[in-house]
């Protein structure tokens, strides 16, 4: 049986990504400001088709909008309300988002803090979740999974230094510096820092490939968006009932039916016997 060298294949991806980033960073016009395009192409080259990757903004049913995000990984199968500007920027519902990344030339204190702030503008948005019908059975609203936040760059400061930056910026979960290595942060449920692991420089893309796929698989599928929240925030003369309102209606109807049955039974009991 023939063997396939996965490490060699991904190493070629790393070399190609390095070349693209070098051109963009050293270009007299872009000066590294448009490196997100190279990263978007990289993600699209290996992520399964259930994931879409774009730049743009994230918004919620309360009409709050995030800052501009360089790379957004979001659900490609069940995501409504994706609007696109003439510049190609998407507006994506927050319930659809798996991960957001900022693209920089280098990972250092300033870029980590800036990226943490941009990710925060996404994770602080209001998210909904609704009941679903699966195989003919009702399923309760799913708990909201975390949104991954990361930073992408060509190079990085030393890893012990980066770890100290990441520790103080709780929205950073993962990152890749193509010439320096990749890292993954472990935090507790309150987002307190626990530990950070990082790869060797020559395995930066290989490690990041496995890290991001594993983190995305852990998230599963995004919860069902409660489109009624968006409808009721934007429509004037139409209101779609929420699950709570539907339950209240059902409860009222059952109560009315029960009261009707009791009244009918009472009337029957009060009717005089026919001789």
Q: If you had to describe this structure to a student in words, what would you say it looks like?
A:
The protein has 275 residues and is of the alpha/beta class. The chain has two domains: 6-225, no CATH class; 241-270. The protein has seven helices and 13 strands. The protein has a nine-stranded mixed β-sheet with strand order 3-4-1-2-5-9-11-12-13, sandwiched between helices. It has a two-stranded parallel ribbon with strand order 6-10. It has a two-stranded antiparallel sheet with strand order 7-8. Helix 1 packs across helix 5. The longest helix is centred in the C-terminal third of the chain and has 28 residues, at 243-270. It is elongated. The mean pLDDT is 84.
* Average predicted confidence as pLDDT: 84
DSSP strand tally = 13
Order of helices and strands: HHEEEEEEHEEEEHEEEHHH
Derived structural class: alpha/beta
Uncertain stretches:
none
* The number of domains: 2
Characteristic terms for this protein:
39% helix, nine-stranded mixed beta sheet, alpha/beta, single chain, 23% strand, two-stranded parallel ribbon, 7 helices, 2 domains, 275 residues
Task: Offer a concise description of the structure.
The protein is an alpha/beta fold and 275 residues long. The chain contains seven helices and 13 strands.
């Amino acid at each position: 049986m023939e063997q396939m060298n996965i490490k060699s294949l991904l190493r070629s991806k790393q070399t190609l990504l390095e070349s693209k980033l070098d051109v963009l960073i050293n270009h007299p016009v872009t000066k590294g400001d448009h490196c997100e395009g190279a990263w978007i192409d990289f993600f699209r080259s290996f992520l399964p088709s259930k994931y879409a990757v774009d730049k743009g903004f994230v918004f919620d049913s309360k009409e709050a909008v995030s800052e501009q995000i360089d790379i957004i990984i979001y659900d490609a199968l069940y995501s409504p309300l994706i609007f696109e500007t003439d510049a190609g920027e998407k507006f994506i519902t927050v319930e659809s988002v798996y991960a957001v990344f900022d693209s920089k030339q280098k990972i250092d204190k300033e870029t980590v803090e800036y990226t943490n702030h941009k990710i925060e503008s996404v994770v602080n948005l209001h998210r909904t979740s609704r009941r679903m019908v699966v195989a003919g059975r009702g399923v309760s609203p799913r708990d909201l999974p975390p949104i991954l936040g990361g930073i992408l760059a060509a190079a990085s400061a030393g890893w012990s230094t980066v770890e100290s930056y990441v520790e103080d910026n709780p929205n950073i979960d993962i990152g890749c510096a193509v010439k320096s290595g990749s890292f993954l942060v472990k935090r507790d449920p309150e987002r307190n820092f626990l530990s950070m692991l990082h790869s060797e420089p020559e395995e930066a893309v290989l490690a990041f490939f496995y890290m991001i796929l594993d983190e995305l698989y852990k998230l599963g599928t995004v919860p069902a968006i409660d489109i009624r929240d968006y409808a009721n925030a934007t429509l004037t003369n139409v209101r779609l009932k929420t699950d709570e309102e539907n339950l209240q209606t059902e409860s009222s109807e059952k109560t009315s039916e029960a009261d009707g049955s009791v009244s009918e039974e009472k009337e029957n009991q009060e009717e005089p016997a026919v001789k």
